[in-house]
Amino acid sequence: MQEAALAWHAGADDEWLNFARRYLMAWIKTYKPSFNPIDETGFDTLIDTYVMIGPSLPASEREQVRSYLQDWGWGYVTAIIHHGRRAIWINNWQSHRIKLVTMIAVAIDDTPLFDKARDLFRKQIQANIALDGTTLDFRERDALHYVVYDLQPLIQAALAARTRDEDWYHWTSDDGSSLANAMTWLLPYLSGEKRHREFVHSAVRFDAIRAQAGLKGYSGLFDPRTAGALVWLASAFDPRFRLLATQLASHPPLFISMCGQ
């Protein structure tokens, strides 16, 4: 769907537009949001698709998609407002919620929703990232895998916000925490200057179970190549990451073209 929309956006014929439209409308008419951000984080491709082909949809379909996304975005906001005290409301789960809310707000040009997304983003930076750049997920899981999984959606949100001329990447809390600082902390591990053995001191029992079961990535040394997409995203804000991005992944992920790159 996203690839078809990108092909059409790049000049391919309307066959690709119609393909993307059919898939987009099928999802809109069928899928009922669960508001589980880990399950739904991949729907950023649906949002991207709407951004690209929305102006070419029939007015009735365009309004149907817009209303659907608006309900989805505000549904996440409502869930966040009424959340409990579990860590999933400040760890990587929250980062993925914020990504979706921000992308939806930008896609449908909903200023009140965007304002709420900005507020949630700043609260997440304060709650999740320490002054030294370490994330809550690293402190709990002792794994760079989860640092990447935590920071990538936040940078996607920052890229979406940049289309509204706002710089969330360098925004700094009163405590001195920022997304930029977190990426600076991670950089030596991405470049290979430092190495890290994953999940050794994780406080989450399930991590040990997955490691014992031999699941890939839950033991051994962190592989910087798994962070290729994150580094490409960071390079949109910080040129220090550009050369490293090409070394870790030869091409940027498709969604970067839709996030202000």
Distance between termini? 20 Å
Helix/strand structural class: mainly alpha
| Count of spatially separate domains | 1
Q: How would you name the CATH homologous superfamily?
A: Chondroitin AC/alginate lyase
Task: Count every beta strand, where a strand is a DSSP E run of 2 or more residues.
Answer: 0
GO molecular function, one term: lyase activity
Domain Alginate lyase: 4-195
Protein name: Alginate lyase domain-containing protein
Keywords: Lyase, Signal
Describe this structure in words.
With 261 residues, the chain is mostly helical. It has a single domain, classed as Alpha/alpha barrel (Glycosyltransferase), CATH 1.50.10.100. The protein is built from 13 helices and no strands. α1 (2-9) runs parallel beside α4 (44-53), α6 (92-108) runs antiparallel to α7 and α9 packs parallel to α12 (228-235). The longest helix has 23 residues, at 59-81. It is globular, with a radius of gyration of 19 Å. The model has no long low-confidence stretch (mean pLDDT 94). Keywords: Lyase, Signal. This is Alginate lyase domain-containing protein. Residues 4-195 form the Alginate lyase domain.
Detail the topology: elements first, then pairings.
Blueprint: H1 2-9, H2 14-30, H3 37-40, H4 44-53, H5 59-81, H6 92-108, H7 111-128, H8 136-141, H9 144-162, H10 179-191, H11 205-212, H12 228-235, H13 242-248
Helix pairs in contact: 1-2, 1-4, 2-4, 4-6, 5-6, 6-7, 6-9, 9-10, 9-12, 12-13
